[in-house]
Specification:
Strand content: 15-25%
Oligomer: single chain
CATH topology of one domain: Ribosomal Protein S5, domain 2
Largest sheet: 8 strands, mixed
Bound molecules: 2-deoxy-2-fluoro-alpha-D-galactopyranose
Structural class: alpha+beta
Helix content: 40-55%
Length: about 400
């Protein structure tokens, strides 16, 4: 992305020069899916695809927001004294939610700002374009108005925006990955304690290929909320026989010993996934630390199987991409990433096999599904921050 182009776009939109430029990455989750709202482990990293924001404070209390990705929406204008969810305000609801919760925590802002946004994360592809925008807004507001609020607090407000403003009962995975990332690393995070370890993602002989199925199921949010509720119901039943506050606290063995108290077969499957996936994620982190990529890849594959069979959040398209990836020479492991019901998968592939991988998986996918997939090479990135110019 070219900084000058971003500043020019701001100027074209608002008629004067923008002041500061910020960048917020997207994320992939290497493993640890649907564990974050179960107090389990996750293992994401931030990526170079992300959201850019150019800003300048205003004299009044209005925010004027324009996205280069949604020019048809036009400039959305709202006051920082009136921050209610409004469907018509489209993507700016994420901006509104963040400002609302930041104000709640730090006190009223005195001024609004003009904001030009441009994102390189495909929407609805499970690479967290929304959390990227939430953290972007949070860091902009904090830095613009010198607020005393930490990056971790912004991460938590991002999750609140998602939960309380947008109505998606997500966990903290996406906002944490985007807010706390360090280039060159993936984070092994315990979502119960928020303790985490930056583990070098040093793969000199491999690339992480993101495979976008270019598909997104209807009702993703309600399906997501249903999965969470099913886990909560299973937890309530387990609590009658074992002292725990979250599924993530159970070992696989403890789960097997107590699972008979869960009345419904579907709930058993959901809880099983959460427990086993969390354990698998911890082991995958250990494997990566000792550079045992083969074992890491096997855990990725197991994760996908569990998301398919027990959690049932994969779809025909993502299952196909992963199956095709598994068949390719040079694939270490492959799985869906993010919330599921379409979106992206990831594969770790030997460097010299990547071109062939993309050709073969891409053409077989297109023949079977009837439309193409997109492929991107993942590169790690730092968490959300100002893009400081060095010229
Ligand atoms: C979505 C949610 F936003 C995350 O909190 C997480 O639950 C993920 O799905 C599944 O692991 O990205």
């Amino acid at each position: 992305m070219n900084r000058k182009n971003l500043l020019t776009s701001f100027e074209e939109q608002f008629g004067y020069e923008g002041e500061r430029v910020f960048f917020s990455p997207g994320r992939i989750n290497l493993i640890g899916e649907h564990t974050d709202y179960n107090g389990g482990k996750v293992f994401p990293c931030a990526i170079t695809m992300g959201t850019y924001g150019v800003v300048k404070p205003r004299q009044d209390k209005e925010v004027h927001a324009f996205s280069g990705n949604f020019p048809a929406v036009g400039t959305v204008i709202f006051s920082i004294d009136d921050l209610e969810y409004d469907k018509a305000d489209n993507w700016t609801n994420y901006v509104k939610g963040m400002i609302k919760f930041i104000q709640e925590q730090t006190g009223k802002l005195s001024n609004g700002f003009d904001l030009y946004i441009y994102g390189t994360i495909p929407n609805g592809a499970s690479l967290s374009s929304s959390a990227s925008l939430e953290l972007l807004t949070g860091v902009i507001v904090r830095d613009l108005f010198d607020l005393s609020i930490s990056q971790l607090e912004l991460v938590k407000l991002g999750m609140r925006t998602e939960n309380e403003f947008l109505g998606l009962n997500s966990g903290i995975l996406d906002q944490f990955a985007i807010g706390m990332a360090k280039k060159g690393n993936a984070m092994l995070l315990d979502t119960n304690t928020l303790e985490y370890e930056q583990i070098p993602l040093d793969l000199p002989h491999h690339k992480i290929v993101i495979m976008n199925s270019m598909t997104r199921r209807e009702l993703v949010d309600s399906e997501y909320n249903t999965r969470r509720k099913q886990c909560e119901d299973a937890l309530d039943q387990l609590k009658t026989v074992v002292e725990i506050d979250s599924l993530g606290e159970l070992s696989e063995e403890e789960f097997e010993n107590h699972k008979q108290v869960i009345s419904d077969k579907v709930l058993v499957k959901r809880a099983k996934h959460a427990v086993y996936e969390s354990a698998r994620t911890e082991r995958a982190g250990e494997a990566l630390k000792r550079n045992d990529l083969k074992t890491f890849g096997q855990y990725m594959n197991d994760s996908h199987v569990s998301l398919h069979e027990d959690y049932e959040v994969t779809v025909k398209e993502t299952d196909l991409l992963v199956r095709l990836a598994w068949k390719q020479t040079g694939t270490v492991g492959a799985r869906m990433t993010g919330g599921g019901f379409g979106g992206c998968c990831i594969a770790i592939v030997e460097n010299d096999q990547v071109d062939e991988f993309i050709n073969k998986v891409g053409s077989a996918f297109e023949i079977e599904i009837g439309h193409g997939a997109e492929f991107y090479i993942a590169e790690t990135e730092d968490g959300t921050k100002e893009w400081v110019s060095h010229d």
